[in-house]
Amino acid sequence: HPSNQAKASSQDCVFVTRYVAFVNLHPQSSLFPHARDMSDPSVCLVYGSLLQTYKPFVTHVTPVPLLPLLLMAASRVDTNEDFSLLIFDGWIQVMLTQPMLVVAPLLRLTYTLRWNLLVRQDATVQRIFSGQVGDGGQAQEESEDLWESTDVDWGNKDLPDSVPRDLRLVFSDPPQPMSESDLEATLIEFFEQPLEYAPQSLTEREYEAFRKQPGDDTNHKPGQQQEGWEGVELCPWLHFNTIYSTISVEKSLASDQIAVSWECPTCRKTFRFNRRQIAEHKKECGKATTQDGEGE
Description:
Largest sheet: 6 strands, mixed
Helix content: 25-40%
Strand order of the largest sheet: 9-8-7-6-11-10
Structural class: alpha+beta
Distance between the termini: 46 Å
Shape: globular
Strand content: 15-25%
Radius of gyration: 23 Å
Number of helices: 8
Number of strands: 13
């Protein structure tokens, strides 16, 4: 949680999970003394279990980079129309600051890594149930039959023109098979690469507010609904243009904490503010406008 650094002690530090809003790090964790240092929003804690005693604790935790983990593990990823906003599994929102030229290769790499891992996972399950274990099974895993016999088909998509060209190039061709050693090395590099983004958690109601519905126009303005929207499934886990770039914080669906892209009607500048920050800016911007008018 971003506020952990300001906490008085580790026992006051909180973390956000999908099903329990605020949890604490278990005192017996080796990371407990360093809980106050875990305020970097680009790092998350992967935990083994959630222990409920007099308050909820997470145990068996490991810090990992947030965005690479989300890209590799999320079962559903929703994006807006220019891929600047992503929502993972309906509760973690990430605003990307890199242009599409940077994002597209990252998506292609994610696409390839996830496909390779899934194919190997399926092959392992098949070997277990067929009794093929040991060196013979390992040899089979590395053989060409592994790729030829797989049912995991993500490529050759006939994507519509509404999908940006860079994205069509990413997902039009099938992923390329990787050897086990190349896969391991690439995964390490993938998790270590520097990325610029701004994450925040969403409630279920906020996710529903961001989701587009059939009949909504792609050039959406908060509060307006028009005809002509259709999202695109780029691959089984990635859904393009299924969320809005922003929502109105005046809606009851938005909590006080959520930050959205907001354009001030007075100064015409765009900010990423929550409801309180918007109110403060309106007040200050109004004062500045009044003072400028009096000075003329």
